[in-house]
UniProtKB/TrEMBL annotation, chain A:
Keywords: ATP-binding, Kinase, Nucleotide-binding, Phosphoprotein, Serine/threonine-protein kinase, Transferase. InterPro entries: CDK (IPR050108), CDK7 (IPR037770), Kinase-like_dom_sf (IPR011009), Prot_kinase_dom (IPR000719), Protein_kinase_ATP_BS (IPR017441), Ser/Thr_kinase_AS (IPR008271). Residues 297-358 are annotated as: Disordered. GO terms for molecular function: ATP binding; cyclin-dependent protein serine/threonine kinase activity; RNA polymerase II CTD heptapeptide repeat kinase activity. This is [RNA-polymerase]-subunit kinase. The active site is at D137.
TrEMBL record, chain B:
InterPro entries: Cyclin-like_dom, Cyclin-like_sf, Cyclin/Ssn8, Cyclin_C_2, Cyclin_N. Residues 98-181 form the Cyclin-like domain. This is Cyclin H. GO terms for molecular function: cyclin-dependent protein serine/threonine kinase regulator activity. It comes from Kwoniella mangroviensis CBS 10435. It comes from the Eukaryota. GO terms for biological process: regulation of transcription by RNA polymerase II. Residues 1-29, 368-407 are annotated as: Disordered. Coiled coil: none annotated.
Length: 358, 439
């Protein structure tokens, strides 16, 4: 037997696949158990059989980055093995996600809770950025929550390395509500600031308990953004009118919009403003954000184990509620059909994007 | 690509002197799983080669029997001397590595990262497989196709295939999975090119930097780097060591002046007193220079030498007679193995069917339904159709009869959820409806 095949079957033997808990176009998710320890795991089986262009690029990306990134606030990839032509990812078992927590109206958040979730997200993100990777799909339902309350960044299907000077990147990334204006204006050269914008909008969503900027189209997203925070001037954001897809979007006045999140306190408002700076160059980095006074001032962040969690047992539910509720799927356009397809397989991206449990 | 194992230092995670401390590189799969000493590389290859010779010899014998049983005439297997040696395998591998460069630069105009990643994939593949089992002419395009995807420059299959005269999409698809598996699904290769460019910036980061000289040296250093791709260096040294050696080889004075300044300003204390980890670059200067000169010797010996095309052709010719017949479509043994595999898969499917049917019966009995299936009419379980769940892609049923390489043809039930036996009882159905989710 080939060495690689033998190694694979040894790995496969470590895990026992249980019942299916989620199904999507490119992956099915199963409960699983590590045979030697009885530890619960999730097994994500990526369907690879029918692809004309071979192994799916989204799957390859996910595997590529999870193989390299090891951090308490990033979902752990425990093993990879194959059965026939399917790649199986063995992932740590996680109970729920931040989206479910936000939507559960029975839960009341204290500022210390929000501080804790944001701190954990930033720790994971700082590590991702330090390793030269952009996540490009941060949103509450990609921030999973373990049974001990720890937050873990998941879904690296759109991630990529950055830092190659001159290599163009696609601007069709990040779910629209969490997408920064530079991408909406078609910027092809961007950096870690795109992920920071997403964290900023998630921060506000944790305070308001509704998505902060919920545009129905890309144009509407810009409108809502500028309506909320004022149309940027050349001074706020030097050079933005030169971006490829720039167009004038009304001229909304600047209001002290941060008053609506005054409950988080002055330091918190300050940090949100730094995360949602129009100028990507001026936007705070994950590292700098972690050093922000918000995290050292009273109250102290809630320990993960004491964070609010949905009490009711989780029911199976749609894997991508955003799509069915008019939240945007990633749009495809232009050349390089295959790449784009990987980013957005179908209009309703019915992909098992996270673990759902019966 | 051969590296004599005497002159080289043992380099690898075990040698603490080479580890400047945790960095993203030290967490990488490359550092954890793809670092070897020259001697361990040699022994891995010797073992692979030895095993393949055995397998090929045995299978050639079996192929002979199979052919004879089919009534075909058959020529005798090659004598043992005809089998490839480790250095034959390496020469062939080096040739195909150089082909990747040609195709990337002339054929597709792909960036360097695709080229170096594809070459690394090919080299890593042959640390798990032998040339006599899988011919590099088939594996090389697959490595390139896969590397293009993992480095964000995907090429559509049709476009890709059009650049190869004797290749069909299936040749790629058949081996892509095997390649990914041989790589341990570890796709991120840390190329020394980034390190080299990093050094070019670091070299400028000193008082009164010789910018003109650095600019002049850079293209030549990049040329050295291209030669590194054809060697084993990436398995033995870190990308930054290789990058610096490429500079040093182009202009030793430039690098030595820089190191002199770096070491004299940053480690002022008596070096013997300082912990290794706290030293500049995590090691003493003479050790670093020794590593650089070892790398440079390898570049000059293995990387820059011309590939002997005559020898490559001769090896390739010999390889035709000593490739594992199991892996060549069309041989009697290939057909036989495929049939065996199909039978095995059908058997396991039948077992699953039996299990599902038993479970269905079980379910019925829980609800006390008065089913009476005359045991005489109950068909042999293995005769039943497999209870394949309906496979849909976005609601569109996948056409039945999908054949994937390495797998038997799967008959997909169009109506999906179970099979009726002759009593009209649905068996094993519902499965997906129970656990599947509305999407």
């Amino acid at each position: 037997m080939d060495l690689a095949v033998r190694e694979n079957s040894q790995r496969a033997a470590r895990w026992e696949k249980g019942v299916k808990v989620g199904e999507g176009t490119f992956a099915n998710v199963y409960k699983g158990i590590e045979r030697s320890t009885g530890r619960k795991v999730a097994i994500k089986k990526i369907k690879a059989g029918e692809m004309k262009d071979g192994l799916d690029m989204t799957a390859l990306r996910e595997v590529k980055f999870l193989q390299e990134l090891h951090h308490p606030n990033i979902i752990a990839l425990l093993d990879v093995f194959s059965v026939k032509q399917n790649i199986n990812l063995v992932l740590e078992f996680l109970d729920t996600d931040l989206e479910a927590v936000i939507r559960d109206k029975a839960l009341i958040f204290q500022n210390a809770d929000i501080k804790s979730w944001i701190a954990m997200s930033l720790r994971g993100l700082e590590y991702i950025h330090r390793n030269g990777v952009l996540h490009r799909d941060l949103k509450p339902n990609n921030l999973l929550i373990a049974s001990n309350g720890e937050l873990k960044i998941a879904d690296f299907g759109l991630a990529r390395e950055f830092g190659d000077a001159g290599s163009k990147m696609t601007c069709q990334v990040i779910t629209r509500w969490y997408r920064p204006p530079e991408l909406l204006f078609g910027s092809r050269f961007y950096s870690t600031a795109v992920d920071m914008w997403s964290i900023g909008t998630i921060f506000v969503e944790l305070i308001l308990r509704v998505p902060f900027l919920s545009g129905e189209t890309d144009i509407d997203q810009l409108k809502k953004t500028f309506h909320a925070m004022g149309t940027p001037t050349e001074q706020d954001w030097p050079g933005h009118t030169k971006l490829p897809d720039y167009h004038e979007i009304g001229s909304y006045p600047k209001n002290p919009w941060w008053n609506m999140i005054s409950s988080i306190g002055k330091e918190g408002q300050d940090l949100v403003k730094d995360m949602l700076k129009y100028d990507p160059v001026a936007r705070v980095s994950a590292r700098k954000a972690l050093e922000h006074r918000f995290f050292s001032s009273y109250p102290r962040p809630t320990p993960p184990a004491s964070l609010p969690k949905p009490l009711a047992e989780l029911r199976p539910r749609a894997l991508a509620p955003d799509e069915t509720q008019g939240k945007p799927a990633l749009k495809s356009s232009g050349s390089g059909a295959m790449k784009r397809k990987a980013e957005s397989p179908q209009p309703g991206r019915n992909v098992a994007r996270k673990l759902v449990f019966a | 690509m051969t590296i004599s194992n005497d002159a080289q230092p043992e380099a690898g995670p075990s040698t603490s002197g080479l580890t400047p401390g945790p960095s993203p590189y030290h967490e990488s799969s490359q550092f954890r799983h793809w670092r070897y000493s020259p001697s361990s590389l040699l022994s891995i290859r010797e073992e692979l080669n030895g095993k393949s010779v055995e397998i090929v010899a045995r299978n050639t014998e079996l192929e002979k029997e199979a052919q004879i049983s089919l009534g075909h005439s058959y020529t005798d297997p090659p004598p043992p001397t005809a089998y490839l040696t480790v250095s034959d395998e390496l020469l062939l591998l080096r040739f195909y590595c150089s082909q990747i460069t040609q195709i990337c630069r002339r054929g597709f105009g792909l960036p360097d990262v695709v080229e170096s990643t594809a070459i690394s994939y090919l080299k890593r593949f042959y640390l798990k497989n032998s040339v006599m089992e899988w011919h590099p002419k088939n594996i090389m395009p697959t490595c390139l196709f896969l590397a293009a995807k993992t480095t964000n420059y995907p090429i559509l299959m049709d476009q890709f295939i059009s650049k190869f005269s004797k290749l069909s999409p299936d040749d790629i698809l058949d081996t892509e999975f095997l390649v990914a598996q041989s790589l341990g699904f570890e796709f991120w290769v840390r190329s020394p090119e980034k390190a080299l460019r990093g050094w070019s910036l670091d070299l400028q980061n000193q008082p009164d930097p010789p910018i003109g000289l650095i600019q002049k040296t850079l293209p030549d250093a990049l040329k050295n780097l291209a030669h590194c791709l054809l060697t084993d260096l990436e398995f033995i040294y870190t990308p930054s060591q290789i990058g610096l050696a490429c500079f040093h080889l182009s202009n030793s004075q430039l690098v030595e002046d820089y190191l002199e300044r770096k070491y004299s300003t940053e480690s002022t204390e008596d070096e013997d007193e300082v912990e290794i980890e706290k030293l500049t670059f995590g090691m003493r200067k003479d050790r670093l220079l020794e590593i650089l000169s070892n790398i440079e010797a390898t570049i000059e010996k293995d990387g820059q030498s011309e590939i002997d095309l005559k020898k490559v052709k001769e090896i390739d010719k010999r390889l035709k007679n000593c490739t594992n017949p199991e892996k060549i479509p069309g041989t009697a043994l290939y057909v036989k193995r495929k049939r065996e595999k199909e039978t095995a898969e059908a058997a396991s499917k039948a077992a699953k069917t039996a299990k599902a049917a038993a479970a269905a019966l079980d379910r019925e009995s829980v609800f006390g339904s008065d089913l009476s299936i005359p045991s005489s009419k109950s068909p042999a379980l293995s005769d039943r159709k497999p209870l394949s769940p309906r496979v849909t892609m976005n609601g569109v049923p996948v056409t039945s009869g999908i054949t994937r390489p390495g797998g038997a043809e799967v008959a997909l039930e169009d109506d999906g959820m179970g099979v009726k036996d002759e009593n009209g009882i649905v068996m094993g159905g519902k499965g997906l409806r129970d656990v599947g989710l509305p999407l």
